[in-house]
Amino acid sequence: MIAERSFMFKIFNGLNIVVLIVIMLLCLLPVWYTLSISLSDKAAASAGQVFLWPKGLTFGSYATIIQDGQFFRSFFISVQRVLYGAGISFFVILLMAYPLSKTSKEFRPRNVIMWLLIFAMLFNGGLVPWYLTMKTLGMINNIWGLVLGGGLPVFNVILVMNYLRNMPKEMEESALMDGAGPWRILFSILLPLSVPVLATILVFTIVYHWNEFFQALVLMNKSDHYPLQSYIRQVAVVIDPTKMDEETVKRMSVLSNQTLNAAKIFISMLPLLVIYPFLQKYFVKGITLGSVKG
Amino acid sequence: MRHRSFAKHFYIMLLPGLLWLAFFNLYPMYGVVTAFKDFNPGLGILKSPWVGLENFQYMFELDDSKLIFRNTVLIAFAKMVGNLIVPLAFALMLNEVKNRLFTRTVQTVVYLPHFLSWVIVAGMMLDIFAYSGPVNAVLSGLGFEPILFFADAGIFPALVVGSDVWKEFGFSAIIFFAALTSINPEMYEAAAIDGASQWKRLTRITIPSILPVAALLATLSLGNILNAGFDQIFNLYNPSVYSTGDIIDTWVYRAGLIDMQYGLATSVGLLKSVVGLVLIATSYSLAYRFANYRIF
Hints:
- The complex is a heterodimer of chains A (294) and B (296).
- By secondary structure, chain A is mainly α.
- Chain A has one domain: MetI-like fold (Orthogonal Bundle).
- Chain A has 15 helices and one strand, in the order H-H-H-H-H-H-H-H-H-H-H-H-H-H-H-E.
- In chain A, helix 11 packs antiparallel against helix 15 (258-289).
- The two termini of chain A are 45 Å apart.
- Chain B has a single domain (32-291), classed as MetI-like (MetI-like fold, Orthogonal Bundle).
- Chain B has helices at 3-30, 44-47, 54-61, 63-95, 100-111, 118-128, 134-141, 156-181, 185-193, 198-221, 230-236, 242-245, 248-258, 262-291; one strand at 293-294.
- In chain B, helix 8 (156-181) packs across helix 10 (198-221) and helix 13 (248-258) packs antiparallel against helix 14 (262-291).
- The longest helix of chain B is centred in the N-terminal third of the chain and has 33 residues, at 63-95.
- Chain B is globular and about 80 Å long.
- The two termini of chain B are 24 Å apart.
- At the A-B interface, helix 1, helix 4, helix 5, helix 6 and helix 8 of A face helix 1, helix 4, helix 5, helix 6 and helix 7 of B.
């Protein structure tokens, strides 16, 4: 009986591992397929002959991208946006989280400001009022519209605030005794101790700014000003419904830039793929830090 | 304590964030008055004439309203169920594997799609589900006719829900992994001594221990029933699938920023925001009452 059971469980565990491997491959295959399309011969790709391995291996698409001025301009705009956005968010969040980590006894307006933040996180005026007010703020064709336009990242403020609140009070009290002021306490004591949560929000912010594509479509009048994701959407994703019937789809795909677009998609993923192993350490913590229970 | 003298510094610290909040969160909220106006770009928000509830009346007369509401709720609900059950099942399966290297590798890989933008995922999907793409190649190998996936209104919602689950299940599983590691190992040891099988340990210890977490996540996700995923659908849809794929947010985008019906689009967006706020507040207070969950 026991032996029979453990035999059943060997089968179960084996099957379990097989299914998990299949799931893992399903997550990787689209990325792999895009890479092999981008390295394939144009004609082979559009004839649907490419599967797991590039057919007619060529770096032609990548060579074409090197000469594509708009691709590089957009890439640079994205980098700029990430640097500004992540840098500003980082300091604003840190500075806000510290006073808000106090109790309302220690800092009177704390709860009022908290509720204001929560309200701003859960309610928004919608797309059109956002666009109209961004216009009056002069954010059209302006990189600051992309950096600041998403609004204060309230969720990240709360994340850091919760982290600071769970820190032992004695840290701060002993620093107070030694005569340290609030800035000193924040930057030389709390900041070094908050590296895990700050790294987490940095990861979230970088990924957000790198991936966000929509604001530029609305705020930028010319595609010269597009960050990379908006540019890629414009060249590779927009589906023209007039091309949707079978005959034209076939005809179009011969002429299309499928391999080139795949190369663009792959390059735009590359920065994330490169830093991903370093990111992983932090976001797992971050998501479990997201809430306080108890 | 000395904290009192800190207050001045605390205000200075809060200032940059509050300015950001005022200009880019609160000021756009004021723009919702556009919903009650016949907005004229030449006059601006302030000077455009008031029209009361006319925009809302018009909204309820439109056939589109029912359609986009139905599509939104159906897609959001299907995503909610998929993004709860798949990560839960996946976490339970991975939890049964004891080899650390294997579980770490699987986790690293399945978290990855979460970090790809919808532009990228949509671009990859267009290739994979293309008329001459690999999915259709497999289908014709099995003797089926190739399908124009992105032109088929019947298939589109399934593509949307499926790709969303594909992108998010790994990342959503993190919270279950955390819950699974916090189960007291002594329970398993005691069960093993009593001779409980692997199956018994799974059904009597593991699953009951993480059901409360699943219930909490389900409650919290109720607040998102009107968010069917703008970024995703905006990148995947086209007019031939509007009948099943057009959602409130994409409709508002077209009505407002393409067709320039500012008042109408604002009123639809406002109604959505208000209902959404009520739903989220309700789900959070339920979570607080029954699970003692709070965000701050």
